[in-house]
Amino acid sequence: MKRWRRPPLQHPLAPACARAVESLSTALSSSSTRHYNTTVRNFLVYLAAEHPEIIRLEQLRRDPHILGWMSRLRAQIPPLATATCIGRLIALRAIFNELAWTSKLAELAHLLRREDIPRTPQSMPRPLTAEQDQLLQQEFLRRNDLGGNVFLLLRHTGMRIGECVDLSTDCLRSTGPDQWAIHVPLGKLKTERMVPVDAFVSEIAQRLRFFRSLDPLPPDGRLIARPGSKVALLVQLRDYLHLVCHSLGLSTRIVPHQMRHTYGTEMLRAGVNFATVMKLLGHTDPGMTMRYLDVTLIDLQREFQLARSKPRHLAPQPKTSATPLRIGIDGLIDSLLATQYVLEMFRRSLPNADKRRRLDRLANRLTKILAETRELRPT
Q: In this structure, how many other beta carbons lie within 10 angstroms of the beta carbon of residue 358?
């Protein structure tokens, strides 16, 4: 399928902006370059429509040219997402800074200010509800087609959709008897990882490999065939999810990335520790992982009750040894340590706050006695 390309933009400032984008994109990915070019086109189209007299860089002014473009962004229908507006403002500011340096026009660097860029909205966890998750998985299983198996794989591995379409045909690896893992290639954060999977996910990967063998396109080493570009395949998969949600009467605003949020939250509730969830999701920043995990009041109450009912999880068990008890000062110190541990465990198990405070005072006295006893050791 031949991808349609827009004609080059005809504007007097287009060549200078193109050179700035080329300079900025030297070490960036193709998607970042497309983002810069999209921002330049958006700004120059506005400039040509509203201020056709602008033909030179030195004619640009903050008011009305830049402020007018910013107002146009905010007034767009349907409204742009805040993150999209932030991305375009940052991109245009970087382009102006580059032009200010290369064109010797220092005033260009002050057209867009740092305070013009709004703060990034706080990302909240967006896992699917239990009902949405169940209905979607049942529908994917019923359809058992390429799209359904792709989204089941996303749901049970927590991959990004961009990582999924980059999977190789040999991504399913055997790690032991009846044990498998999916090899996720270099993704958004330029990291790769192995995600353990069960027999169900292993069968999904096998089905996707079977679908690939039936595709008329020549083998290219990928698990999912690309009839066109990667972007076209991603659009096709998102459209598939939209149609499935519509057929089930669910919100059509559900996006593939919510499968990833659902997987991370499910792993946390299953008892997987936070560091392991980070590793499964391929994150390097704990703050990013926290945006994915929906910790509800039910989760907090479960952990609180576990801590209250089993206080041994909060304090380490005293070390035991097969050697006989020591005598003298060392034996006394061992006895005091054991008493300190037993007192602390008993204190934590008491429901009465007043009694816990009294035992806490006794524990402090015991700590002082232990310190004084250690000083009695012969030098």
A: 13
Cα–Cα dist 140/244, whole Å: 8
The Cα 88–Cα 68 span in angstroms is: 14
Return the closest-CA partner of residue 126 out of 255, 215, 28.
255
Query: In the structure, what pLDDT confidence band is assigned to residue 99 with cuts at 50, 70 and 90?
Result: very high
Q: What is the pLDDT of residues 104-124, one digit of tens each?
A: 888 988 998 888 888 766 556
The CA R_g of the chain, rounded to the nearest whole Å, is 30
Contact 374, 333 (CB under 8 A): yes
DSSP for 87-118, please give it. Answer: HHHHHHHHHHHHHHHHTT-GGGGGSS-GGGSP
Of residues 55, 222, 238, the one with CA closest to residue 154: 238
In terms of Cα–Cα distance, which of 266, 258, 257, 275 is closest to 299?
Answer: 266
* pTM (predicted TM-score): 0.56
CA atoms of 268 and 273, how far apart (whole Å): 7
Helices (H), the chain: 14-24, 30-50, 67-74, 82-102, 130-143, 146-157, 161-164, 199-214, 230-248, 257-269, 274-281, 286-292, 297-309, 328-349, 353-374
Model confidence at 239, pLDDT cuts 50, 70, 90, reads: very high
Can you tell me the distance from the alpha carbon of 71 to that of 50, in angstroms, rounded to the nearest whole number?
A: 12
> What would the DSSP string read from start to end of 228-266?
S-HHHHHHHHHHHHHHHHHHHT--TT--THHHHHHHHHH
Contacts of 266 (CB under 8 A, 6+ apart): 127
39 vs 24: CA distance, rounded Å: 13
What's the residue count for the chain? Answer: 379
Question: Residue 260, exposed/middle/buried by CB under 10 A (0-12, 13-18, 19+)?
Answer: buried
Q: Which helix (H) or strand (E) holds 293?
A: none
- Write out the DSSP string of 24-48: HTTTS-HHHHHHHHHHHHHHHHHHH
Q: List, edge to edge, every strand of the sheet that includes 179-184.
A: 172-176, 179-184, 193-197
CB atoms within 10 A of CB 102: 13
Tokens, residue 1: 């399928």
Average per-residue pLDDT for the chain: 84
